[in-house]
Amino acid sequence: MKSITDSELFDTLRKVFGFREFRPNQEQIVRAILENRDVFAVMPTGGGKSLCYQLPAVLLPGTCMVISPLISLMKDQVDGARANGIRAAFLNSSLDPEERDAVMQQLLSNSLDLLYVAPERFTLEAFKKMLGRVNISMAVIDEAHCISEWGHDFRPDYLSLSSLVTMFPDLPVAAFTATATHLVQQNILDKLSLRNSLIVRASFDRPNLSYDIRLKDKVDAQLVSLLKKNAGKAGIIYRTSRKSVHETAEMLKAKGFRALPYHAGLSDHDRKRNQEAFIRDEVDVIVATIAFGMGIDKSNIRFVIHADLPKSIENYYQETGRAGRDGEAAHCTLLFSPGDISKLRFFIDTMTDETERKRALDALSKVVSFASTSICRRRNLLDYFGEHYPHDNCSSCDICLGTRERVDCTREAQMLLSAIVRTEERFGATHIVDIVLGSNTRKIRDFGHDRLKTYGIGKGQSKTYWRQLVDELLAQKVIEKSEGLYPTLFLLPKAVSILKNEECIEILRVVEKTKEKEHDRTLQATETPYDQQLFELLRVLRKEIAQEQGIPPYVVFSDRSLHDMASICPRTADTMLTVTGVGEVKLQRYGRQFLHLIERYCTDHPERAA
Ligand code: ADP
Ligand code: ZN
After folding, report:
1. What pLDDT shows up at residue 519?
2. Whose CA is nearest to atom 5 of ligand 1?
3. Which end of the chain is least crowded, N or C, by CB within 10 Å?
4. Given a cut of 60, is residue 256 above it in pLDDT?
5. Cβ atoms 79, 57 nearer than 8 A
6. Which residues have a Cβ under 8 Å from the Cβ of 208 and sit 6 or more positions away?
């Protein structure tokens, strides 16, 4: 194989992709491929897997063949590669016969650097035979976990890929995935029988994501406030049920936000339309069940909000992982109410398969403990994947930023517990809270509960406060709810110790305002400062160009590229080339328009041009 010099390697990185340096592991992988070695790499979403094979695809003679499971992903990847001037195409069932013939022609005339194909092609003898007449440079298996029956996305078609190594005895085969437990990893390796392979397991840390878990209180108001903070930015709000997806989307629309729903109950047409509108920056927010996300390559998602408790830590990691693919800062917020636990448990209880039910319960208890402990969120997440986080403070989660504090609420807990005792554990949460608050309800009068010593003892706090404290006491196993239609509260042993002042109880509370501001400031400090107004204008131009060309805006330029432009204000083509993500082809295609806009802006704002 032709040997590639260092300068060729870095020149191509710069000229084609517009990047000055590699991200972690990329160089090692690219070099291994260029040395004709097989590769197996587990890298998180946003880790930059595409570059690992697209760069060799440009450097090596012949066509790099990429097997990819989803039609939508293929299209996106091809758009992205073409925007950088790479000769790319795909072959899948979405093409009509003429289009397919055209791709075949390009392939046979050796005029493609990259070809994306669906795995089922490898079960077709005609296709395999045709490959014999084509100059292939290497084979890539994207989303390689699809080959494992133990993974969550098993694709029977992927099994045929185990013959790739025998099909291409002299060519490198590289497999990539973002999701592989050690078990799945071994399973993939066994199935593919890679030779002398480089195995890379990147860190699962996503340093540009910040994590924040807050008590869910008034969910609508909390969502509105979060969206206001992220005005104009793209984000996903995850909810558990179709109904809540629908209601939240309607509520947000009514308040003037550009939001659309997405769930499995919508027609194919509506789902596709809403997803497309989100991808193309025509709406900012998609409110979705977990049905949303697979096959979404949108790199400029700036926030993900879980308005309900996720099913498992894996789910949480995957769903939050869709934010910030471009490497720019993105925020992940989970609104956690202990009340959500019982809702999820209710669903789990309806499961008939005992093993499934146990697994779901186990996953739930792990996610609850993740949300309720005061350990760094990042450390906790990585720990779950068997990875040790080497720093004491990650500086970008609510725990490390100290936006929460422990508050002793033993006295308040005693008030609630005593109300439960004095009413002989015969009433539910609403009534107990009414007693403590001193409400004048018919039920209270009927039972004479206004004569209890605890009646009205907690007037100083709001109804929400007391409801949350009940949830907290349930979560901390101080009290328990009876089964049945009208669940009543009763004490557990811990409650007795609390009443006797032998044990204290603490809850985590968000420290309001001052510290939250500090939180935002710290997070922004990790970004290079840029001119917000210019950035917005660049975004508008990006969207116009994208619309004209029928591609998603982030394919024209990533948010990262626009931030760079709004920070260094390039006035010449040479300076424009120093912007991350601006290679020679993008400069040639879009440079003039963007330079023109920046020039005009700097003339209008001479103070900022300096
Ligand atoms: P993955 O497939 O691993 O999720 P992608 O290949 O989509 O990740 O890359 C994620 C983002 O990172 C893209 O916007 C891409 O342009 C950018 N990127 C990749 N490599 C680099 C690099 N070396 N320097 C800067 N940005 C990069
Ligand atoms: Zn932290």
Report:
1. 46
2. 48
3. C
4. yes
5. no
6. 46, 324, 327, 328, 329, 330, 526
Candidate from 219-233, 250-264, 373-387, 536-550 with smallest mean pLDDT: 373-387
pLDDT for 515 beyond 60:
no
Q: 525 or 544: whose pLDDT is higher?
A: 544
Joined together, the tokens standing for residue 591 give 């440079």
Structural domain containing residue 272: 209-399
Same domain, 46 and 111: yes
For residue 527, tell me if it sits in a domain.
no
- Both 268 and 223 in a single domain? yes
Instruction: Out of 23, 203, 582, give the residue to mutate to test ligand 1, the one with the largest number of ligand atoms within 8 Å of its CB.
Output: 23
- Listed residues 371, 399, 427: the one ending a domain: 399
CATH assignment at residue 345: 3.40.50.300
Specify the ligand 1 atom closest to the Cα of 23.
Answer: 23
Mutation test of ligand 1: which of 22, 51, 294 has the most ligand atoms closer than 8 Å to its C-beta? 51
Instruction: Tell me: do 376 and 429 sit in the same domain.
Output: no
pLDDT of residue 243: 95
- Find the 378 Cα to ligand 2 centroid distance in Å: 5
CA of 586 to the centre of ligand 1 (A): 16
Does any domain span residue 305? yes
Contacts of 326 (CB under 8 A, 6+ apart): 46, 299, 300, 554, 558, 559, 560
Percentage of the chain beyond pLDDT 70 is 95
Q: Is 337 contained in some domain?
A: yes
Alpha helices in 96-140 (DSSP H): 97-108, 125-131
Residue 303 dihedral angles phi and psi, to the nearest 5°:
-155, 150
pLDDT digits (tens, 9 = 90+) for 200-216: 999 999 999 999 999 89
The percentage of residues in the chain with a pLDDT greater than 90, rounded to a whole number, is 66
Could you tell me if 327 and 208 are in contact, meaning their C-beta atoms sit under 8 angstroms apart?
yes
Considering the domain architecture, whether residues 141 and 178 belong to the same structural domain is answered as yes
Does residue 478 share a domain with residue 417? yes
Q: What is the tally of structural domains in the chain?
A: 4
How many angstroms does the Cα of residue 301 sit away from the middle of ligand 2? 21
Give the pLDDT band of residue 195 (cuts 50, 70, 90).
confident
Q: Across 23-106, where does the E strand assignment appear?
A: 39-42, 63-67, 88-91
pLDDT band at 240 (very low <50, low <70, confident <90, very high): very high
Is 552 part of a structural domain of the chain? Answer: yes
